[in-house]
Structure formats: C-alpha cells, structure tokens
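Researcher: Quick one. two chains, 681 residues in total.
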Amino acid sequence: MSLPLYYYLAIASIYILMTWALYLPYRVAHLHFMVVANMAISGYFGGYAATQWGWPFGAALLAGMLIGALLSWLVSFGIGDAPTFAVVIVGFTFIYITKTAIENWDLIGGTMGMFGIPMVKNLLLYAYLFVLVTGIFIYRFDHSRLGRAASAKFVDKDLATSFGVNTKHLGMFLQTWAGAIGGACGVFYAFFMNSLFPDFFTFHIIGTTMTMLFLGGYTTMWGPLLAAPILWGLPLILPTSIASWRQIIYGVILIVILLLRPEGAVTRQFIRKIQVKLKLVKLA
Amino acid sequence: MKKILVISIVLLLAAGSLWAAGKKEEVVAEEFVATEFEIPFLNCLTGPIASIGEYLQWGAERAAWEINQAGGINGVPVKVTGIDTAMSPEIGTVEMAKLSETALVAMGPVPEPVIMAAMPIAVRSGLYSFTATTSYEYAMQFFPWSISWFSPTDKKLPPVVTAWAKKNSGMKNVVQFVENYGAWPGMAKAHVIGLEAAGVNVLKEIEVPTDAVAFGPLVVKALAENPDGIIFAANAEKVAKIILELQSRGWSDNSKILVFSSADDGALYTTGGSNINGVMIYNYVDPGLDTPRWQAFREAFKADHDGMEPFSLSPNYYDAVYMIKRAIEETGVTGDPAKLKEERILIRDFCNNVENFKGLFFDWSNENGVPKDKPLFLFEIQDGQKVLVEKVVPTNK
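Model:
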C-alpha cells in the first residue's frame, strides 16, 4: 500500500472512531467533548508506556481504553443526567485542564512533546478491526432496548423516565463507552504519528468531528462512517490554488446540508429506504 | 502446415520480445536530463499562522527566482512548490507521505505540531527535509534527515542574554514572563543560564497563559518582586501589552527589558508603538546590514508587502533554497528518479556538513546538521526599527 493512502486511511479510522465517540452520548443529547481529553490522556499514557516501560501496543491500547472509560465513568456520576450545556462545559474544562497539565509535566515532554513512539506492524489492520468491532457494538446498541430508550430520552427526557428508563444510568453508560473509544483513539493516534504534541488534542478535533457528525447525520451510526473519510479527504484532493478557500467550502457544505437535511446526510428514513430497496426489510 | 504456422508465430513473438528488451535496455542506458528541480515546501499557507507561512514562502520563491534569473541549478530551472498543511498535523502526515515517494529533497514542515507528526514519515522514507524555523531541540529528534537552523538553545541564547545583562551593570534582579508553548520554556531556561553567568538573579518566572487577554494581575505579581529588569519569552502581542501595563504601573527604564527572538514580529511593533522605544530585543538576523544582496531582498519584500520590513524568519527558506542549489551543484545530483535514494543522501550529507555557506546575512558552516558559528544580534528598538547594539557569536561547545 502506498504511504499516502496508508496515512489517509489511518487518520480516517481515527476520525470515524472519534465521531462515533461523540455520536454515542449524543444519542441522549449529550455533547460529550470530554472524549478529546480522554484521547489526549490515553494517547500520552500509551506513548509513555511504550517508550519508557516497553509496553507492547496491545497492552497500551487496553490500558488506554480502561483509563478513558474510568475517567469518563467517574465524571459521569456528576453529568450522567445533566443538561447538554453542562456536559459541554465540563468537556471544554477537561480539555483545558488536560492540555495545561500535559504542557506543565516535563516527564511526558511538556510543551516540547513526546518523541520516538515505536512503529507497530499491521497497525492499520488493527485500527480497522477496532472500527469494525466498535461498529458492530454500536449497531447492536442502536437496535436494542437501550438504543430505543436513548432515542426516547433524546426526544423527551420526562417521557423516557415515565417509560421506566433510568436516564442517569443510560447517560453514564454512554459517556463511559465514549470515553473508552476516545482513549483507544488516543493510543492509535500516538502509534500512527510516532510522536505527540499538546496541540494535537485541542478544539480543532471538536470542530472537525462535530462537522462530521452533523453533516453525516447524528441519528444513525452510518452518518459518521460516511462523512469522516469524505470530509477528511476533501482538503487532500483540493488543488493548492483553491486550498485557501477550504474553510469557505466546508462552511457552504455545512449550510447547504443543514438547510436541506437538518438531521444530516444519512437519516434513519434514508437507511430504511436503502434497506427496502435492497430487500433487507419488508415495507410495513 | 498448421505446425509450421504455430512455430513461425512463436519465433516471431520471441524475436519481437528480444528486440523490445534490447530497446528497453537502450532507454535505461540513456543519461537522465532533468528539466526542472522541484523543491516542495510543506508550509502553512492558510489557518492561524498563514501570514508567517506567506513570508516564509515568499523568501523561498524569491531565492528560486534569483537562481533562475542567473541560469538555474546547473542550467536547470528550479521551482518551489508550496504545499499547504493549514497547520493540521493530520494533513501534514499525508502530504509528507506523498513527498516521501518522489521528492528529491523537501522544505518544512512548519510549525512544531506538523513537524512532530510529519517528520517521522520523512525519517522512515529517507527523505531529507529542511526544518529551518524550529529550534535545535525539535530538529535533532529527526537527525540526520532534518537540519537545525539554530545551535542548541542552551548554548546559543545565554551569551546574548549575558551581553544584555552586562550592558545594564546596575541590574541585579530580574523577573521573567514565560508562555508555555513549544520551545519557549526551554528558551526561558537558557535565559536564566545567561543571567546567572552575568551574576543576575532571577527572582520569579511568571507564566503567561496562552489565552490571556488581561495582563494587570500578571504585572502586579511581577512588580511585587521589586525587579530591576524584565525578560520575555512570550507571544509578540502579549509582550507589547505587558510592557504597556508595566509602564502604566510606573516602569520607566525600557533598556532593562529584554524581548526574545520569537516575539520579534509585527504585533510587537504595532501594539507597542513608540512605548517600546529603548526596549532591547535579540534575534538571528540584522536588518540594518548593508550588503547589495540583503538590500535587494529587503526592497523586493517591501514592494510585495505594502512597504513592510521583512520579518526575521523571512530569509530562512531563502537560504535553504540556496543551500540545496549548492548541494546539487557540488555533489553532481541529477534528479534522476532511478537514483532517488542515493541522491537524497548526497544532498543530506552535503548540507549537514556544509562549509562556508553564503547566507543572506552571514556565512556559516554546519557540523552534523547543526550550525557552528551563527551569530546572534542584540538590538535596541527605536520607532519600530531595530538598532544594532552588539553582535554575539555563541559556540556549541
């Protein structure tokens, strides 16, 4: 495989996973930006464990997921059932705290960053296996009772509660899961890049993944899967002469999609239509 | 009859194949003649530091233009191609991966986040890239596939800070403002070494938050230490605002303020105005130099930038293009894609140990990718201009 394609696919896998990490808590209307902090913490942990303690990638990945899940789980006691706005503020705060802590911690490179994270053979394959497994779990969740409960909570929290949904536990579960995915993303990112820098994990990841989520469609898991590779690939294929118009092109696409399809490009109705066409389901 | 026909066809095909193979060998044996030397430049042409990217690009293209006017590199024209990473590490990786397959040599990436993400790919692919705007501490991570434009920070900065301290003989206690970004804390540490060498005590380091907009509390904290000197390692605009805040609280002796090189940017002068007259600043280039080459560069820059003076980093990639030119000419690099691997190494080894390179401002030599004898300049700011006070040549020893 050519090197440019390798890196395109590598970053695409990170964006798919990170957009899913946002998608999951958004199923209960939580914009859980803390996943970016999880990504940074686990990424640095994985990088440190590999360079200083000689941990293999698999162990670093597992530990990164556990750290991400644990941090999100602890925080979810406070924001598992909080309004969207509060979840957003907590997320921003955690990103800020994490970045400041990394910058001030010389042990992990401080403002200079971390160098020399080893290369891993077949890493791209592992990343897409992880995407596949995560996708299967999300698909199963979306089509389960819990998934329907999340949909009910997204529409009306009181209605969901009256149906017997424990909205706090549901929010905590999704935030914890998202934290684990964010943590895994950080470890994959560290091993793909072979170095880490505090500015890797800032608000640009939120901007990019939010665009992917809302353009692709936030009502199904397929939206991020479609939008992430396209939106990430767009700046790479634009000719240099119009590269300076990139932000405007993004903006126009975002406005057009949101005007024409407020739920994003891939909606549940759209998926249903495709399933009917492919005769995967019968028309009710 | 049928048998004869089949045998004839087989023989014809075999003869044809042999002829084609011979022809192919002839083509391979022909000497490769380059029609153009393309130097890709991984730069930030859009995004938060697009203005810096523009003047880096301008310097590189100016060098290519001058070289082409003078007949090119060994008679072959040179072209600098700007590749925009928009300061995105992710885009930087893919663009560097593209270059790693075909480029003879590269320039960039810019700045540190993209360097960190993209340079490991260059190292893995054996592509030599000019990281000419970052500090030694970043460049050395990727040796020998990168080049450091500066000496190690803890060697190059202390002498110029010592020189400043010695000019203010009564100065005994200093407070330093430091912003936590990239190599800046390391530069702040080097300032301390220089001050200690001059017998000056650093009372306190005040951290300047990256997102700070109000500086009153920071200045109060600094003045509470009762310093008689102030030194800065922070962003240009913040430095100017802090100086204004210091003056509003009674600070009057600007010569006892030293600003580091990374703040030698337009924002320092536009925000500071005449209030920063007398402030001392150090940098790697002397804009007051009176040589025809520098004056031509300066006038061309001003003509293309509404009369603005060239920024301190503008010459870096100008010099890099000339260094590549010299490497190609003196090592006999042809640009033949079939010899890509060995010609990359020829350029790398030449540049990493170049002797008496004629830069825009001064001549210098490298040793294992690190400059041996590049000077630093201490200036006094007067009406938006830098007036040379002292030239200092640090050693790497």
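Chain B has two domains: 37-150+312-364, 154-283+377-392.
Researcher: Thanks, that's what I needed.
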